[in-house]
Amino acid sequence: MTGKEDVATIEEELPPGTLPLDAWQRARGARMVVFANYHMPIQYEGIMAEHSWTREHAGLFDVSHMGQLSFSGEGVDEALEQLLPSDIKGLKPFRQRYSMLLDEEGGILDDLMVSRLDGGAFDGADIYMVVNGATKYDDMGWMIEHLPDEVTMNHMDEQALLALQGPEAGDALATLIPETAGLYFMQSGPFTWRGVPLWISRSGYTGEDGFEISIPADNAELLADALAALPQVKPIGLGARDSLRLEAGLPLYGHDLDPRVSAIGADLGFAIQKRRREEGGFFGHARVMKELADGPGSRRVGLRVDGRLPAREGAPIFAGDVMVGEVTSGGFAPTLGAPIAMGWVSLPHSALGTALEVEVRGKRIVATVAPMPFVPHRYRRQKSA
């Protein structure tokens, strides 16, 4: 492993990179933008059309910009439980959890997914983790600084990551890999397709049923071709990914989450299991317990915005003449046919149904604190199967 300074220097010096499917995307008419220091597709046919297709059928997303990490070594569970507030020791093989990387004061450095491997995947590693693309080098530096020497972290930059999302994703993937039909939400496991090793989890970032597929980068185009050839599947860009996750009430790191905010204020306390709350031993435990007892100073909320004009990130939120918060994500929700937003507001103004106003283009627009998700999640959960 390299030192923290080396990782940061690498990130600063890198020009925008290309992902394994760059040529594949351009050949299909993708409009490319730079995101998380990679050239990535913002759209193919159009954001509205791609959003609707994913809600009705299955969309294929290239999320290879995300950081894929593996961990192994003596005491790996205990080491990760200092950095993450979630129960890693209790994570069973082939199971996955949502968690966060916290700093010493309990600020959120990133949100992530962590999975227990089976001892056979990824060179026998114990833990597999997916972190956000824009923060992966900072995450790696932080973990290198705080993990003991006995724990080895591997940046799996030779792996691509594809996401297949939508109500027809299960049937589509089962056409190619029948065994995936047995997976339920937040389950994962090793699979093989045409001799290629895959790690597949039933999860995603749209609120729909779906999968994330880790595959050697050299084989990513082969799998993308096979999936896109299915009648249920179309390639989808970042634009629809953002509108889908906003409708699903899912936060975006660097916008809705950052080191200034806490897990409790962000309404992510579900990721801190009872044992961890009681035992502590993780960065930020004191802040978590204080905010559970006394409430946070502000809270992440959903907002229904009157009219048709969307409230974008940075729009101030008012209660009367007093500014009480700020929009962190906002846009038009194609599924609802109306603008929605996510933002942080002071605790006294965070209750459901609270009438507020957002300032958009110099005009005050009524916005009401609303429950999230805005569009119900449709995960394939085992208990309801």
TrEMBL record:
Pfam name, any one: GCV_T
Q: Which family does it belong to?
A: Belongs to the GcvT family.
Q: Name one GO biological process term.
A: glycine catabolic process
Q: Which domain of life is it from?
A: Bacteria
* Binding-site residues, substrate: 212
Name recorded for this polypeptide: aminomethyltransferase
One GO cellular component term, please give it: glycine cleavage complex
Q: Which InterPro entries match?
A: GcvT, GcvT/YgfZ/DmdA, GcvT/YgfZ_C, GcvT_C, GCVT_N, TrmE/GcvT-like
Q: Please give the catalytic activity noted in the UniProt record.
A: N(6)-[(R)-S(8)-aminomethyldihydrolipoyl]-L-lysyl-[protein] + (6S)-5,6,7,8-tetrahydrofolate = N(6)-[(R)-dihydrolipoyl]-L-lysyl-[protein] + (6R)-5,10-methylene-5,6,7,8-tetrahydrofolate + NH4(+)
- The answer to whether the entry has keyword Methyltransferase is yes
An MF annotation (GO) of this entry: transaminase activity
Q: Decide whether keyword Oxidoreductase is in the record.
A: no
Q: What is its EC number?
A: 2.1.2.10
Task: Look up and give the organism this protein is from.
Answer: Sphingobium baderi LL03
Q: Which keywords has UniProt assigned to this entry? A: Aminotransferase, Methyltransferase, Transferase
Q: What class of enzyme is it?
A: transferase
* Domain (Aminomethyltransferase C-terminal): residue spans on this chain: 299-375
